[in-house]
Structures are given as C-alpha cells and as structure tokens.
Amino acid sequence: MLPIVNHQPKYLGRLGAELDTKTRFDAARTAALSAPAATRQYLGALDRVRQVVRLGIFIATHGNFFDQPAVADGASDLFRDVFGAENLAVKLIIAVASLPLEVPIGLEVILEVDE
C-alpha cells in the first residue's frame, strides 16, 4: 500500500529531506487507508478480519532522520482505530533509501480473516 489518492501519489520525497513533520504522519495514514478499502472490496466487509498479523512499514529516509517509529504511528494508529488494539500483532519498521514512484511510505499488510 502506498500513499495514493485518485491513482496518483499524494506525497513525494524522503523523510529528512523533502517532507515536513505534519506531512510525515499524514503520508503513513494515507497509505494505511488503502488497506481497509482494498480489504472491504475483496471480502465485501471488514467484519471478517480477525487480526492484523503483520504491519510492515517501509519509510524512505535521507541523512540523519531517525524518527521512523513516530512516522509509522500514522499507519498503526489507523489500524488500531479500525480493527481494535487487541487485534494488532507485529509492527515492523524499516528505513530504506527509496520506494516506488518516489513515495515516502510503503506498507505491507497481512491480515487473518474468517472464511
């Protein structure tokens, strides 16, 4: 999942270079919004989701930027609000040099669902 709105990247750049503090959190939240939307489209409803098994958060950074966990909260807070704190498992945060389309955030979401 990427911070895409209307089939276009909403944010471009790397944290610690082109993006300011407010934009960092919102970019993660925007990327996270894609997951429930895609899940609902695929499953028909979100009530079949038992838990978020893994939330991988890849953050494009530059230089001496070390506040990745605070940025990742934009995504994990949304998942907590949608699926409940008791249904969150592992969060993995990885800083990378770049991501596709020059976006600052990329998410990997693994959900456990009822059949």
Summarize the structure.
This protein has 115 residues and is of the alpha+beta class.
Primary descriptors:
2 helices, alpha+beta, two-stranded antiparallel ribbon
Provide the fold topology.
Blueprint: E1 4-5, E2 8-9, H1 21-43, E3 49-60, H2 68-83, E4 88-96, E5 105-113
Parallel strand pairs: 3-4
Antiparallel strand pairs: 1-2, 3-5
| Strands, total number | 5
Terminal CA distance reads: 23 Å
Named CATH architecture:
2-Layer Sandwich
Low-confidence stretches: none
CATH class descriptor name: Alpha Beta
Helical residue percent band: 25-40%
Task: Give a structural overview.
With 115 residues, the chain is of the alpha+beta class. It has a single domain (4-113), classed as 2-Layer Sandwich (60s Ribosomal Protein L30, Chain: A), CATH 3.30.1330.40. The chain has two helices and five strands. The chain has helices at residues 21-43, 68-83, and strands at residues 4-5, 8-9, 49-60, 88-96, 105-113. The strands form two sheets. Strands 4-3-5 form a three-stranded mixed β-sheet, covered by helices on one side. Strands 1-2 form a two-stranded antiparallel ribbon. The longest helix is centred in the N-terminal third of the chain and has 23 residues, at 21-43.
